[in-house]
Amino acid sequence: MKRMNTDPTEYVVFDVETNGLKSKQADLLSISFYKPDDGKEYSKFLPLELNRKIVTTHINGITEQDLVGATALTQLEFDRIVEEFELEKRIILIYAGGNFDASFLSAYMKRHRILGFEKLNFYNFKKNIISSRFSHGNITKDNLCSIFKVDGVKTVHSGSNDCKLEWKLFEKMEGYFYLVTEGNGEDNVFRLNEDYIIPASLLSSHPNLSYILSERPYIECQSTPVKAFEIDAKGIEKFQTNITGMTIEHLINSMLDVDVQNSRQFLLKNKLKLDFIGKIPNGVLMMPMSFNPDGTVTALHKEDMQMEKRINSTNKNLKEQIRPLVDFIKYEIFKNERILSQELVVDYENNILALCDLSTDKTILEIKTDNADALAYKEQFFYEAKGRAIYHLKMEWVKDRNTDLLKKIIFHLSFVDAHVGTPSSSNWTRGKREEKRARRITEIQKYLSSSDISLVSFTNISSPIRLQCKNCGYEWFVGYAVLEKKIPNCPKCNPKIKGRTRTTISKEEQMKHRADNYYEKILQKSNHTIVAMNYIGAKDDVDAICVTCGYKWKSRADHLVDRCWCPICKKGKS
């Protein structure tokens, strides 16, 4: 687990204040930069352009009076900021959900035709906070500042102050990654280390784990329906939080008379490897209860007695109807063998552990009370199975369309094939990217299938897409956004004509055409791993970007054709 460098000479902190959450609809109200090594600051208010009035004053304190006399950012001003703050040489730190700050700056620069955004290297250090995708919006910068004892947090935010707070927080985090786990009323924050074995169940719920486990194998998964069991939902409730999951799993365990495995000592010892940092309130209170051998539960607090009755009433009605399902699991899936519950499986090579809901020597079965596809849990299935047959039981909660009341529950039982991906998908990061690219190619091909246009090449949605006319064979490039709006006509078969005179290709268009051809040549030679930008001529420099590792460098155009590889990736392989 590589620790990040926190040398202040390598960073600039960036923060924005906005008039909403969507960069194409809400105005950028201010931008702020901060150099932590010498304390240099820059802040600028920007005038309203997209909106009539400010609606976020309660968040950022910016009023319309503040914007009186404000001017739009110009290319000259931006170039000066780049030079003074060394933006092209340093990593630009942000802390935001979904790269919020960078997205707003990018959209603003596009609207004002300011060049240079692609040369900036942003790092969102929220990636270092590994929290659940189902978190309750409490993993905020302010809450983290509180547990890391960073002073200076204000109720009303400002870009300049936020920049300094973000740097102090980044310093306090010392380049480590932090795991956030849900507790009773509070989330627990721990500092991760290489000794801690990651539970496989977190791989789907905590997406930022991918940044520190990027070298784990990429898992492919297919599921095949086996059988479905439908029951009447009368007298059955679906409870909040994880009560439904725990109680239904307990009910099925009791009906199967499973042998519960006790791995508490191992799990506790593993958890003690983590360094506890602090707690963040989450507003979610769990119900402490004990599980009885007959499938019922007992609340440990008097105030939960009414909930206990509702849970046990639901389980009673379930128990009366799911006997055929339980018998099928016992005799058809597990062949009447002794069934274990909570069997511990550890993959020491990848530093991942898993607990099986139900298992025997030959088979595992995972119980999920949602209706998500097996793909959502493919890694958990893979690490639990360790070569065994995999089954997935999921629940579909069907409501009446007219009354919105629960009408029926369908238990779907599927066989799952989860295995290590193809050689081209040797690790999680590369495999995930290839999976997404392949899916997008299929979507585009289907989209174009009824037209006279076919897809030649696709790298990603940020890069030009090469199309070909089926009638004349002419090839050209379009942007993804343009293609999304409308299938274009072939420029050769349908030339733009002004009056009766056909337009000729300008020098700028010729240059663009040559640049597009060069771009495609580099993509093909590098197997879609290198993007070349700003092509002028064979003897001039181009900007090259490695899609695999993100490294950027300059190379003479003809030299890049001859040596079409990333120097960093090549060095790593040698």
Return the structural class.
alpha+beta
Give, in spatial order, the strands making up the sheet with the most strands: 3-2-1-4-5
Count of DSSP E strands? 29
| Count of folded domains | 4
User: On the 0-100 scale, what is the average pLDDT?
Assistant: 90
Number of helices, counting only DSSP H or I runs of 4 residues or more: 16
Determine the oligomeric state from the structure.
single chain
Question: What do these coordinates show?
Answer:
This is Exonuclease. The protein is an alpha+beta fold. It has 4 domains: 169 residues, Ribonuclease H-like superfamily/Ribonuclease H (Nucleotidyltransferase, domain 5), CATH 3.30.420; 203 residues, no CATH class; 75 residues, no CATH class; 68 residues, no CATH class. Helix content is 29%, strand content 26%. The strands form 9 sheets. A 5-stranded mixed β-sheet has the order 3-2-1-4-5, sandwiched between helices. It has a 5-stranded mixed β-sheet with strand order 10-21-20-19-18. The radius of gyration is 28 Å and the shape is globular. The two termini are 21 Å apart. The mean pLDDT is 90.
